[in-house]
Amino acid sequence: MKIKNLLPGLLILFSPFAFAHPGHWGNHGFESGILHPLTGVDHLSVMISVGVLAALFGGRSRWQMPLSFIALMIVGGILGVSGLIVPGVELCIAFSVVAMGVLLWRSVQISHQWVVALVMIFAVFHGMAHGEEMPLNTQALEYFSGFVISTSLLHMTGMAIGVTVLRLSVSGRLVKLLGAVVALLGGSFLLS
Q1: Which portions of this protein are annotated as coiled-coil regions (predicted)?
Q2: Which residue from 3, 17, 66, 169 could staple onto 192, CB 3.0 to 4.6 Å apart?
Q3: Residue 87 has what DSSP assignment?
């Protein structure tokens, strides 16, 4: 076997997309639910970005975006657990990372209603991935409780980042930089 034939296979194994959903640590419901959003860079980046956007928009968005995300993520989780097969869930999740980066880049220049609608759509796909990857012999309520708590903490982390960025005099540049990093990360998922 030639090295040049082995290299593409090794690159695929080490791509960020391959690690987006590796099976996750923990083999019990609550533990697995808590760890699922924390061990996938795609989930981390989107859920923190939702919190940042919520802080940037302020007002009712501060709670509307995160709570809408969580509610629709639960719906997606139920769809995933029920065995509904939707092709391209991982592709949609990768696209959601790119889109969240673009939304951060554009920040409040986009309509609040459009941003909330996109956040809700993305939440369904993230929830489906959570539900599809629920460990066997796990109680759904425990698992869902875990990933809802974890997601809430990630949203609050994003909100804290957003509030901090707003206090800095160069906040516009920082948000654009954060958006660019998130979009590039999502792009690497799409190219993998």
Answers
A1: none
A2: 17
A3: T
Inter-residue long-range contacts of 37-41, CB under 8 Å, 24+ positions, other chains counted: 37/130, 37/147, 37/150, 37/151, 37/154, 38/150, 38/154, 40/129, 41/16, 41/185
Domain that holds residue 101: 29-191
For the chain, how many structural domains are there in total?
1
User: Does 53 reside within a domain?
Assistant: yes
Residue 95 lies in a domain: yes
144 part of a folded domain: yes
Amino acid present at 102 = V
The 10s digit of each residue's pLDDT in 98-128 is 999 999 988 767 888 899 999 999 999 999 9
Cβ-based neighbour number of residue 25 at 10 Å: 12
The tokens for 20 are 């987006």
